[in-house]
Amino acid sequence: MKLVDNKATLSFSNGSPSVDMPVYAGSIGPDVIDIRKLYAQTGMFTYDPGFLSTASCQSAITYIDGDKGELLYRGYPIEQLATNCDYLDTCYLLLNGDLPNDKQRGDFHKLVINHTMVNEQMQFFLRGFRRDAHPMAVLTGLVGGLSAFYHDSTDINNPEHRHVAAIRLIAKMPTLVAMAYKYGVGQPYMYPKNDLSYSGNFLRMMFGTPCEEYKVNPVLERALDRIFILHADHEQNASTSTVRLCGSSGTNPFAAIAAGVACLWGPAHGGANEACLNMLEDIQRQGGVAKVGEFMEKVKDKNSGVKLMGFGHRVYKNYDPRAKLMQETCDEVLKELGLENDPLFKLAKELERIALEDEYFVSRKLYPNVDFYSGIVQRAIGIPVNLFTGIFALARTVGWIAQLNEMISDPEYKIGRPRQLFTGAERRDVPAGFKR
Ligand code: CMC
Prior knowledge:
This is Citrate synthase. The chain is mainly alpha-helical. The chain folds into three domains: 2-65, Rubrerythrin, domain 2, CATH 2.20.28; 74-267 and 387-409, Citrate Synthase, domain 1, CATH 1.10.580; 272-381, CATH 1.10.230.10.
């Protein structure tokens, strides 16, 4: 970041002395006011719950222009990456800063593929869970559990260890997600098969059985790969910030990623794709397209507590560029599987049509986000609804680990420690007669 020839001056109406604060510029995007010395100079904190105006770090990985609807990974537009690269190229880019050349590409693919298997003991750990446990509960445990299995890559101050932990996580996530699925449906785990692509391998581990050969459908393989690319990173969102904050204490990297998985689970974040599909199924049960108008009235009624899931975004105040790409994939997959007349897809289209015209949504700049379509694609592929967020976690792991590693190698990095505005009871004494 570079110092800008500009400064911010904060003045107070009660006559306290005003303070000057430096302003820094990034390469693109809004400048920032450096308030690090504010408390020392004024004895005051800033108040910004939800981080609406606060940059928590400097980062060179992902950039979003929410008003334009633009998403760049290391400077490359998501549209170009989604059409010209595969997920592992994207992982290489996010971790290393540039796209790989042919040799780097070959080596990176080989490296990831050589780490896809998990310690055999993992399956006994998995066996401790109920078969009907939510896959995100299982995944939070399994990813945290990796810290107990891979001690030799947990010195976060060692760049080599950080690299090995990153590769292990990227390589093993598909295996763990597929194991969580197979455990729930009571089928044998499928070991990874390393002559398949990253997403082809995942499809086989999910839907193959030892009884017969599994043939990967290239349309579904491409669709899944695109889902992975679109979810690979998204700047300082809730789960990424969780990983950074958790990792800032110097904790084990697998444990920090497990914290990200836990945060992602919530319906306002990664759980939105599951919530979106549940919403579509609910409307379908109540009468489908004919009931859309009634449902939209509920969404607009603030007292109903009903939200149009898959719509709205903290950062995008324009069409989410990932949603456009996902919509294309959705069309391809439904065509390939002969599901063009799928009632849920028609319902989603109708909801989108109304929302894009309705004053409530237009005036609040609420557009479909990636989750609006990714759920439909995943459902068509055969992924159960409660595993959608697990797929998101698999794809986002590279973003989390790239951001964690960036933070640790930043010389300005400090343990994260937000302040608060205290509104509770002032000092008081325990009543004299309380001790029994
Ligand atoms: N349905 C109906 N109204 C909405 C919605 C929605 N989905 N989203 C926002 N609003 C309204 C909100 O009630 C508020 O209205 P008003 O100004 O009258 O009080 C206005 O729009 C602004 O909303 P906000 O809550 O201030 O916006 P936010 O930035 O805090 O929330 C959000 C962003 C994603 C949490 C929210 O839009 C939401 O809950 N959407 C549904 C869940 C969803 O799809 N989440 C996935 C996000 S994309 C995946 C990811 O990147 O993690």
